[in-house]
Amino acid sequence: MTSKIEEDFSQLDKLDTKATGQRIKYLVQNAGFSQSELAKILGRELKTISNYYRGISLPDKIDLIILSRILGKSYDELLVFKGDMEGYQRTDHYLLDYNGSGDETLSEAINRSRTESKLFNPYTKGRANIRSLEEAGYCLEFSPSIIQQDIRNRMMDNLLSGEGVHSNYMHHIFEIYIWKKLSNEQKAQSEAQFAIWRGEQKSEEY
Questions:
Q1: What is the pLDDT of residues 73-107, one digit of tens each?
Q2: Which of 14, 124, 144, 173 is deepest in the core (most CB within 10 A)?
Q3: Domain limits of the chain?
């Protein structure tokens, strides 16, 4: 494995501030809030909101929590990583680059992008039990709410520091703070769900 390949993979989980701003703007406008209304809700100046939208700066943790509540999204869903823009991490109708070519439907394109995912760092691919924020969130639902919030805060602090989803610390959280706390039954249930999300198993077989 060459250093060039390692570098390419490592870039996939870096925060894309411009795309994050565009995503937040899209979600806010889709929810029916104007820029001035959002500024009042967050207690910020219009220029600050404009900077968020343009990707000049990122909302701090408090603003992200408020945004998650008014938009009905978990705050990790508001962040976009470089891998997202290529359909490798979270895939949805807004981010997926889909041209409608051939006989492939949008749903098939989404499933294909998940199956062909380049989500993992080469050193962890196939070895990590939890491989994404979506999977971490699923496992966290088994924990008491106070523990969930503490772990989500740890993950958010790591992401906002500029570290990616697959940094060593994030994997430590995934494996030690989340996965190892699950019972064998909870692990089996999680693995079954992950297999569906990863395109390894059809949902109707569960």
A1: 876 678 887 766 554 444 443 344 444 455 656 55
A2: 173
A3: 17-78, 84-115, 133-205
